[in-house]
Amino acid sequence: MKLLEQRILTEGKVLSGDVLKIDSFLNQQIDVKLLDEIGKELTRLFKDENVTKVLTAESSGIAIACFAALHLGCPAVFARKSKSSNISDNLWTAKAHSYTHGNDYTMIVSKDYIGPEDRVLIVDDFLANGSALTALVSLCRQAGAFVVGAGIAVEKAYQGGSKLPEFEGIRIESMAKIASMDPEKGIIFE
Q1: How many CB atoms lie within 10 A of CB 140?
Q2: Residue 127 and residue 52: Cα distance in Å, rounded?
């Protein structure tokens, strides 16, 4: 998606530790027009899949998931990273590792929101080593839901996350695929 790639090139910052900072339009401050376009593109790509739920991880994927769900005409569900007092124990759970935060956590989704009748599109802001996507796929499989695919805003393709065996047979569509990035040399897209 050229629009997203252009924003990454003009506003993105490559930080040490292989981190791409694009929080000025995707994570903390959100360009709703850009996310609306991403939602439309994900809908174009997955419109024939009869998606019943869009699933993402708390918190950076929520905005993207909402726009995709809006255009697909279905609910957006997000996996929480912690359990609060108003959540029952009737949960699907899966472990994940946050690359940017450097910690492990357990994703949780109420069994009331994902079940065997669902056709799920997983949406997230980044795909790097595949840990979050692996956990989201696991939640769907525990629920007996069918994963129609994954829509990713930015994939760091050189980290190989989309090639994990856990994703065999799952269609992954990335809006921007980074082949390499370096603080000095910049960003190269596939």
Answers
A1: 24
A2: 23
Q: What is the pLDDT of residue 85?
A: 55
DSSP code of 25?
I
Q: Which two tokens stand for residue 186?
A: 């910049």
Write out the DSSP string of 173-184.
Answer: EEEEEEEEEETT
Which residue range forms the structural domain that includes residue 145? Answer: 2-189
110-122: pLDDT as tens digits: 999 999 999 999 9
Please answer whether residues 178 and 190 qualify as being in contact, where contact means their C-beta atoms are separated by less than 8 angstroms: yes
Cis check: omega of the bond before 162, within 30 degrees of 0: no
- Amino acid letter for position 133: L
Task: Please give the Cα distance from 48 to 32 (Å, whole number).
Answer: 25
Query: Which residue blocks in the chain are alpha helix, DSSP H?
Result: 2-11, 32-46, 62-72, 131-143
Give pLDDT tens digits for 9-18. Answer: 999 999 988 8
pLDDT (tens digit per residue) in 124-177: 999 999 999 999 999 999 999 999 999 999 999 999 999 998 899 999 999 999
pTM of the prediction? 0.94
Query: Tell me, what CATH number does 100's domain have?
Result: 3.40.50.2020
Phi-psi region of 189 (alpha: psi -120 to 50; beta: other; left: phi over 0): beta
Total domain count, the chain: 1
The Cα 94–Cα 3 span in angstroms is 33
